[in-house]
Known about the structure:
This protein is α/β, with parallel strands linked by helices and 349 residues long. It folds into 2 domains: 4-34 and 253-348, Aspartate Aminotransferase, domain 1, CATH 3.90.1150; 39-251, Aspartate Aminotransferase, domain 2, CATH 3.40.640. The chain has 11 helices and 13 strands. The protein has helices spanning 39-47, 59-69, 81-92, 107-114, 159-165, 204-207, 221-230, 238-246, 250-275, 300-309, 337-348; strands at residues 4-5, 8-9, 26-28, 76-79, 98-102, 119-123, 143-147, 171-175, 197-202, 215-218, 292-296, 312-316, 327-331. α1 runs antiparallel to α8.
Amino acid sequence: MDELVDGEVEYDLHHHGDREVGDGLVDLAVNVRLAEPPGWLRRELAACLTDLAAYPDVRGATDAVAARHGRETSDVLPTAGAAEAFTLLATALAPREAVVVHPQFTEPEAALRAAGHPVRRVTLDPADGFVLRPEAVPDSADLVFLGNPTNPTSVLHPAETLRALARPGRVLVVDEAFLDAVPGEPESLAGERLPGVVVLRSLTKTWGIAGLRAGYVLAEPELVDRLRAVQPPWSVSTPSAVALTACSRPAALTEAETLAEQAQNHLADLIDGLRDLADLGVEVPGTPRGPFVLLRVPDGARVRHRLREEGYAVRRADTFPGLDPDWLRLAVRQDMNPFLKTLRTILGG
Length: 349
């Protein structure tokens, strides 16, 4: 956090977990779940390199994504990761009152501010488990951004709650970048064409391709056309289009479900271990469902630096509006017991 500006705390909206990572550190700061893409995906990506002299063609990727979600191809816009979609939305739309529900991924607000749109923050309460109540969003808001499950809180909002936020004259943007990490993808709106509702998806987290930039938008054709009109030509590369196609096939979806089930088991173990540290002041609000956990610890800045000295990179969370330096975010990994022992030692010291 930085200084107060006109009574509102200014946050570093462009800070991301990759800044925490360093040589020799165990990476618990970045939410990418695989260290590298699986072999079948690497082979398909390698095979497309001979085609790089040609301009990208995303029609096959569009068809594959549409089939994956049971949507029309006119509902799909491939993007260079979900981050490009935030910029496209901020550029194509002219909201009178844009609302971002926090704490959440900060790039939507950063994109809106960069495009000159004032942003109103609706901040959820950790004492309430970061539960989203539709009445908290002002009726006057004509553009609303939220995540599901939300980064960094790991809260999964009910689809019924999200539908209650949709209304005539409003664009509701639901970032589902982490939903394929939740078994069965519950509470998703990706398979529904709802008036004014935009769903964003990313391949980065599940398939270990953050450097490739592959994502897509699902929305009504009129909204898709407005975003496409401001999208730079060929922004989605040939390898990205190949990844979108490959990762939308039934076999890939089955593998993603297996990975999600494994992640949920590791998540449950981590939550149990963290709640065993309640006597040392560790708090885990709500019911985490994503492949990461938000926790509060006493003197969080000191704890984060001590963890770094002990070889662990964790994500500082005070760059998310609504959170302070006592909050930390942990990516879920297979064996968190060594980390939990280290954390106990630091807190008890």
